[in-house]
Amino acid sequence: MIYLKLIWSYLKIGLFGFGGGYAMLALIEREIVGPGWISEQMFTDIVAISQMTPGPIGINSATYIGYVAPGQYDPSLASPLWGLLGSVICTLVVVLPSFVLVAYTSHLIARHKDSVVIKGIFAGLRPVVVGLIASAALLLMNGENFGTDTYHLGWSVFICLISFLAVYLTKIHPIFVIIAAGVMGLIIY
Amino acid sequence: MTCENRNDRGLLPRLFLTFFKIGAFTFGGGWAMISIIEKEIVDKHRWIDRGEFLDLLAVAQSLPGILAVNISVAVGDRLRGMKGSVWAALGTILPSFMIILAIAVFLTPDLIKSNPVVSRIFMGIRPAVVALIVAPVISSARAAKISWRTIAIPVVTALLIWSKWPVVSNPILYIVLGGAGGYLWYTRHNYAKAAGGRKGERK
């Protein structure tokens, strides 16, 4: 049952999703793309759409993945109603672990926020989160996203490089970078 | 600008609407949302003072999950307990949910593949998405103060997850190891310091 599998996967994503949306991508890649519930390409497209729409990327991607995954898993579930059910499930489940933790442990953590235990755990998590984000970037640098023929691959590397420079050097908002890349795709291909 | 009463009966719907508005109009999630939440909650509605907000932010940050949802749950909890948490969280989540649902109904995997215009647009977008994830690698490495001594941690983590080998490619493994390792290192370090302090000159 795809819905139970989605619940189990999104519970893990919500519970271990430290370090923000981009670090969460590594977990989603492992839990959702790994078993083939959505393709590498669709995952990348969902990340792009999640960045272009308002709201947190973790919520946006959960809603979208929940809508698409049932139909990709079993074509007989490819209807708006089954998709809606998946969206509701994934969106609620991804926030469930942190909801419970914030509601029940916030007083405890607020009191001990300067404790050695909490400081130590976060000192250890910080470099790992950098690695998680880097792994998400590495995993997405694949043939499905960059193309396999020379023409497609060449342009992809070019778009990737100038997009990186644009975001890194000029502080242009990512939305405009995605729009510009889409326009380039339309012209080039 | 009036100071709104925390015990006001209309607080729950206003809490919901405030977070709904923030969720509907803030692009980029995470920190972009935090600064707007702070403005609305602390400066405009004055439901919580700045010091209290920063305490809640520290909690929201140290727990897993989506930062904007965590802070809304924490603010709602502080104002109205469990009911407040639920209303505030729903306010943050609903705009995203509805917008994405409206897009997902039309922009299906089949359409992206088969429509020539849409598929060309996404061929251009995909490599840009990768670039947008590389940029935070660098900024988060800076924020984490990664040095030549600690650079092995993110590099090994990233490469092993990327390898897709069984067991060692699971990101959860590194989150658990990182937290446990940090805890052990920090406690040892601090005990050594404390012990050194007590014994005077020795170490």
Characterization of the model:
The complex is a heterodimer of chains A (189) and B (203). Chain A is mostly helical and 189 residues long. In chain A, 82% of the residues lie in helices and 0% in strands. Chain A has nine helices and no strands. The longest helix of chain A has 32 residues. The mean pLDDT of chain A is 93. In chain B, helix 2 crosses helix 4 and helix 3 packs across helix 4. Chain B has eight helices and no strands. Chains A and B meet through helix 1, helix 2, helix 3, helix 4 and helix 5 of A and helix 1, helix 3, helix 4, helix 6 and helix 7 of B.
General form of chain B: flat
Low-pLDDT ranges of chain B: 197-203
Total helical segments of chain B: 8
Main beta sheet strand tally, sense and closure of chain A: none
Low-confidence stretches of chain A: none
Rg of chain A, Å, rounded = 19 Å
Largest interface: A-B, 114 and 98 residues
* Approximate strand percentage of chain A: under 5%
H and E order of chain A: HHHHHHHHH
Count of DSSP strands of chain A: 0
State mean pLDDT of chain A (0 to 100 scale).
Answer: 93
Query: How many extended strands of chain B?
Result: 0
Number of domains of chain B: 3
In short:
The complex is a heterodimer of chains A (189) and B (203). Chain A is mainly α and 189 residues long.
Topology readout:
The complex is a heterodimer of chains A (189) and B (203).
Chain A: H1 2-16, H2 21-33, H3 40-52, H4 57-73, H5 80-111, H6 116-140, H7 143-146, H8 150-170, H9 174-188
Chain B: H1 11-25, H2 30-44, H3 50-62, H4 67-106, H5 109-114, H6 116-143, H7 152-163, H8 171-199
Looking at this protein, list some descriptive labels:
heterodimer; A: 189 residues; mainly alpha; 2 domains; 82% helix; 0% strand; globular; B: 203 residues; 3 domains; 8 helices; 78% helix
